[in-house]
Amino acid sequence: MDQSAIEITGLRKTYASGHEALKGIDLTIPKGSIFGLLGPNGAGKSTLINILAGLVLKSSGNVKIWGFDQDINPRQSRASIGVMPQELNLDPFFTPRGAMEMQAGLYGVPKAERRTDQILEIIGLADKGDAYARSLSGGMRRRLLLGKALVHAPNVLVLDEPTAGVDIELRNMLWENVRKLNEQGMTIILTTHYLEEAEEMCDEIAIINHGEKVAQDTTQNLLGRVDAKTLLITPSEGDPSTIDLPQGVEMSVRDGGQIAFSYNRKTTPADAVLDAVRAAGVKIADVRTEEADLEEVFLALTKSA
């Protein structure tokens, strides 16, 4: 059995203007994963998502969604994926129930198999099912976009910047629902500018830049790629300003009096930092280390690309 939810090989897209948005992307997304698709503005993420959704035609390459080749089985391929777009593109004269029923009809879901009330409950709009969309708050409209993406029970759900500009309550509700859907077997693809979200939510991450994939790995392995490390020391006595720092080590003082030493773990051992602290007569009450976060990895990879 194919273990890939999505297989992309040699994907290219050149627009009529001559802009090459995707330059031969190869990407495999495992079934059942929460997969992060990251990249700076203009990297090609939206083009890639729109190709998956069937909204943009690729120039060349191959795309399979849930085992269905987009060229050979376009309807099955399209039915296997649901997309929650970034833009709030809702008809103001439809109610949430009406919008979801219309969406289900477009996907050919028989009336007996529609789960409109169940989905309204999931997204927290059960009491707003018959209110006009124009009367909903921005957060409620974003929930409705998620509901519309779920009406045909897709195997793969794409969330395009789902928490951009939303409050903490809605963000927490969304992630709670995403985790539940993932536990039920749905594959989730997430694009976000909030890197702490990707670090917390995603099993695996791909980073694209200038239309090319610059990295793909598990979240933990990506975090391990950056050589920067921080040693945090809480001094009990002594003057930190007298510390003779080893070459390449930077020092800063944080709130609460903690001293942060940033260094490259490939060139500087932690012992060298600790020895310099002790040599200055600074006594250590507590010590701990900080690993790189996803933002550092992201910046390092996109800069090198």
UniProtKB/TrEMBL annotation:
List the PROSITE patterns hit by this protein, alphabetically.
ABC_TRANSPORTER_1 (PS00211), ABC_TRANSPORTER_2 (PS50893)
Report domain ABC transporter positions. Answer: 6-235
Q: What is this protein called?
A: Daunorubicin/doxorubicin resistance ATP-binding protein DrrA
A Pfam family (short name) is ABC_tran
What's the Enzyme Commission number for this chain?
3.6.3.-
Extract the InterPro entries matched here. AAA+_ATPase, ABC_transporter-like_ATP-bd, ABC_transporter-like_CS, ABC_transporter_ATP-binding, P-loop_NTPase
Alphabetically sorted, this entry's keywords are:
ATP-binding, Hydrolase, Nucleotide-binding, Transport
- One GO MF term attached to the UniProt entry: ATP hydrolysis activity
- Superkingdom of origin organism: Bacteria
